[in-house]
Amino acid sequence: MTEVSFSPKQRLVMTWWMAGSGYSHRDGILCDGAVRSGKTLAMGLGFFLWAMTCFRDRKFGVCGKTIASLRRNVLSEILPRLEAMGASWQEKRSENRVILRLFGRENTFYIFGGRDESSASLIQGITFAGILLDEVALMPRSFVEQACARCSVAGSRLWFNCNPAGPSHWFYREWIQKAEEKNCLRLHFTMEDNPSLTDAIRKRYQSLYTGVFYQRFILGKWVQAEGRVYDFFQPEMAVKPPRDGYDRFFISCDYGTVNPTSMGLWGRNQGVWYRIREFYHDSRARMRQMTDEEYAAALRDLAGERRIEAVIVDPSAASFLETLRRKGWRVQKAVNDVLSGIRLTSDCLKDGRIRIGEDCTDCLREMEEYVWDPDCSAMDKVKKEHDHAMDDMRYFVSTVLGRQSTGFAACAVERRK
To answer: Which of 45, 185, 217, 260 has its CA 20 to 30 A from that of 330?
Structure first.
């Protein structure tokens, strides 16, 4: 295990509950701020050490957006470090619980995913001595409130961490701004609070983001999304794709009947994915709707003689998906988490993992016209205009590059995907 040094703020996260810290009377802790600022590691260690120091034979909750992301981002990092301190543990994966033994005590930690409103029912009926909610801003309010309500054991405490979202986000309004009222310690993190990051790594992360993502993930601010979504992209960034040398091909498709249909042909050349060609049909502008059969023929023309690994399609386009299957295409429903997809697409455009061909005129046009919706104050949304090539591009990135990511792209929607 590599030796880790901790910053003063990280040490406070791990020890605030101890007598003499000045904060031991608090009922909970809220840590928010920049990506890669060290809050997850410090909070995970602090939570487990607090639980094992103060309780025995008790139940605790550990929550993430999904159980898979929680295992990756928290348990796989924290449990080996506790083991190095003398702990032993047993994970019962089928029951989503971990039995931990340390300091001559034993406690049980239940693992939950809080990805949607239905998740609240999973946590009902159990009594906890404490709960950790990792990336709490990604969870629905009903789940978080149900989780907090489970902590009725004397001395129980609440542990929250997250990256910022918009200033109208319910967690910001109800917890961050009311931390004192709720008797919680709020700590705001920046990358400087993580001593394991070198200056070069900090600069690399800073170069990844612009606009609202820079303000949130680098500066750690709860700011409103506004303006162009891909505000860094300029027309001169379009390229002339290589004529040959590709080793893989995909086609991504955003399907519409009344709305436009957009398809993009993607090819990989020396590790870079190029949007080589595209098809775009606006039935309103052309005053003619196309049938599924006609769209399938257009897709065949777009593919040419290339071997297409898969056609990634808007998951709501059931009839078109079935048409393509009947014609022998390998089809795949697109990953359709909008905000995570936009963040990953932004990263890939900025670091050159994807490049837009100069002949993809509709995609380039929409890059200029794709904007945040200023009327959606409660949550981040994009305007449902000029978004069809943007959607098919996002489908490709989320479905193909998202599953290949090694974890460097630091996103608030699920880290280390």
So the answer is: 260
Give the three-state DSSP class for 83.
Answer: helix
In this structure, are residues 208 and 351 in contact, taking their beta carbons and an 8 Å threshold?
yes
Residues 263/294, Cβ–Cβ less than 8 Å: no
CA 85 to chain centre: 31
Q: Tell me the HSE value of 243 on the side-chain side, using a 13 A CA sphere.
A: 0
Is the pLDDT at 209 greater than 70, yes or no?
yes
pTM reported for the whole predicted model: 0.70
> How many residues in the chain?
417
354 half-sphere exposure, CB direction, 13 A CA radius: 25
Q: How far apart are the first and last CA of the chain?
A: 23
Q: Within 13 Å of residue 267, how many CA atoms lie on the same side as its CB? A: 18
Q: Helices 8-15 and 39-54: crossing angle, nearest 10°?
A: 30
Where is pLDDT greater, at 74 or 120? 74
Angle at which helix 388-396 crosses helix 338-350, to 10 degrees, equals 80
Report d(CA 356, CA 336) in Å as an integer: 21
CA distance 66 to 63: 8
